[in-house]
Write a structure and sequence with these properties.
The protein folds into three domains: 259 residues, Rossmann fold (3-Layer(aba) Sandwich), CATH 3.40.50.300; 162 residues, P-loop containing nucleotide triphosphate hydrolases (Rossmann fold, 3-Layer(aba) Sandwich), CATH 3.40.50.300; 72 residues, no CATH class. Helices cover 31% and strands 26% of the residues. The chain is globular and about 70 Å long.
Length: 521
């Protein structure tokens, strides 16, 4: 891997050559959007060969700061120094040329091209003489195989990316950053879709990069990860720099209190919901695809939060998408309040009182070029028709503003484009969208993924309140504390099969992991 990382971290001084104290400095960075001051005179200093955690609630400005670093946004004020020298980053190409790479939380590969083409996109090796130049596929394959060997990545370079799991696509993005000879790598929620073994492999790669002087800016809401791998921790709040501390001096409680500006004494709300009669019954539901789910049988009660646990690849998402009519089934039976229902499309699911909050909010949830108002009302437009059959804009605006207030969505107005909101506030808008359909059954797929602890608590409180009202809630989560802290019962899956169901009051991490590792015959 050393040949892939020719790092030049030296500055010329009168007294000779020495390594700069900071590899990256962002000084006095400010950025405003209409109605929002996203960054306010913010400073970030990152040492070479370290993992620098960047933390803050959703809306604190972390993503905006990193987009300024990567050339997606142009700061209104401030400067960026790389190894002591001021640099201009006017585009993502400028950033890459300077040795700055960014691995985004939401991955956007080219699904119909293979792994090595995605890896070297925009910089294919060439052969021949101008103007008769051709892509050198043999060299591209050799370079890909060498890179994957160095990083201990086991992926066939010829595989179409669209056939890979999210975790493998993320591994390709990390390899791409390394192949760019990156000096600074930004990792935004890199473990959100990884299994335990894959997380360990990522941490090994990070340790190897640190030895070569690469600086990692690590954005995550997982406190255990931050405290385990970070050297320094910078905390932001409301676009301001609260402070930077050695990770060794930090604790989970200290990080949370500095992030939110107050003590957060409990991570989960007190729940008073009481599960009642069976609301939903699923019997032997089976997918037409051999590698998907088979013979899934379970029930959901009124006022119950049923958690679904399991490792990546357990087919949890596929099951609830089938319940919502997004995936076909070859056999099985779904009953609501004792009556069998036939759900072939999402419209069928909605008519039967179901709502689905999808895992990838930016891909399958929000309409990024539409406003908060449009995203809120889009699933229930018929509700806002007037006597002439036309949409009543005042009613739509009133209800959108009501839910913005009710769910405490941080937005300048309901006319703001939803893509300009933080992840947590986007998630609240999506919840508002489905609550407007007045569902009896809510299917929540990773409802707090990529959301800070403060926003998580608000969403947990909303979920608990909905359960208290008698709604039946199925919640997929890859976070063990979330499953244990919010579920009345936990259903565990492995490789498309039901491993077991445990009572939330007696559930332990050990029980869940044991079931996740083996399914019952």
């Amino acid at each position: 891997m050393a040949a892939l990382l020719p790092l030049f971290f030296h500055t010329i001084r009168k007294e000779g050559v020495r390594m700069a104290e900071y590899l990256l400095e962002m000084n006095g960075i400010s950025k405003e959007f209409p109605g929002v001051k996203a960054l306010d005179n913010l400073t970030l200093k990152v040492r070479p060969g370290t993992v620098h955690a960047l933390m803050g609630e959703n809306g604190a400005g972390k993503s905006t700061l990193m987009k300024c670093l990567f050339g997606i946004y142009k700061p209104d004020a401030g400067e960026i120094l790389l190894n002591g020298e001021k640099v201009a980053v006017n585009s993502s190409k400028d950033a890459l040329d300077l040795g700055i790479s960014m691995i985004h939380q939401e991955l956007h590969p080219v699904p119909h091209r293979n792994v090595m083409e995605n890896l070297w996109l925009g910089r294919f090796p060439k052969k021949g003489l101008w103007p008769f130049l051709f892509v050198d596929h043999r060299k591209m394959l050799r370079d890909t195989e060498k890179l994957f060997r160095d990083l201990n990545i086991d992926i066939d370079p010829h595989t179409l990316v669209g056939q890979l799991s999210v975790s493998k696509i993320q591994s390709i993005e990390i390899a791409k950053a390394v192949s760019n000879n990156a000096k600074v790598i930004v990792m935004d929620e890199p473990t959100s879709s990884l299994t335990g073994n894959e997380v360990e492999q990522l941490f090994k790669i990070i340790a190897d990069l640190k030895k070569r002087g690469v600086a990692i800016i690590y954005i995550s809401h997982k406190m255990e990860e931050i405290l385990r791998i970070s050297d320094d921790v910078t905390i932001m709040r409301d676009g301001k720099h609260i402070g930077t501390w050695p990770a060794s001096e930090m604790t989970t409680d200290l990080i949370i209190s500095r992030m939110v500006g107050r003590d957060l004494t409990q991570r989960f709300p007190q729940r008073s919901n009481v599960p009642g009669e069976v609301l939903l019954r699923v019997e032997r539901l089976t997918s037409p695809h051999d590698r998907s789910f088979k013979d899934m049988s379970f029930d959901l009660r009124e006022g119950e939060i049923l958690g679904i646990g399991g490792l990546v690849g357990a087919q949890r998402t596929e099951v609830i998408e089938a319940l919502f009519g997004l995936r076909s089934v070859v056999s099985g039976k779904i009953s609501i309040r004792g009556k069998e229902v036939n759900i072939r499309t999402p419209e069928d699911a909605k008519k039967n009182g179901m709502a689905l909050l999808t895992e990838e909010r930016r891909v399958t949830g929000i309409f990024p070029v539409l406003s908060v108002l449009e995203n809120t009302v889009v699933a229930n437009q018929r509700r806002f028709l007037n006597g002439a059959g036309l949409l009543d804009d005042k009613k739509r605006r009133d209800i959108a503003e009501e839910y913005v207030q009710k769910l405490r969505v941080k937005t300048p107005s309901v006319d703001t484009l939803i893509k300009n909101l933080s992840g947590g506030n986007q998630q609240k808008v999506l919840l508002a969208r489905w609550l407007l359909t007045n569902p009896d059954i809510l299917l929540l797929d990773e409802p707090t993924r990529g959301i800070d602890v403060g926003a998580k608590f608000e969403i947990y409180t909303l979920i608990a309140e909905l359960a208290k009202q008698g709604k039946g809630i199925i919640m997929i989560s890859s976070e063990m504390p979330e499953l244990l802290g919010m579920s009345d019962r936990i259903m565990v899956m492995r490789e498309g099969r039901l491993s077991g169901i445990v009572d939330g009051a007696s559930a332990t991490e050990e029980k869940i992991m044991r079931l996740a590792a083996q399914y019952s015959a």
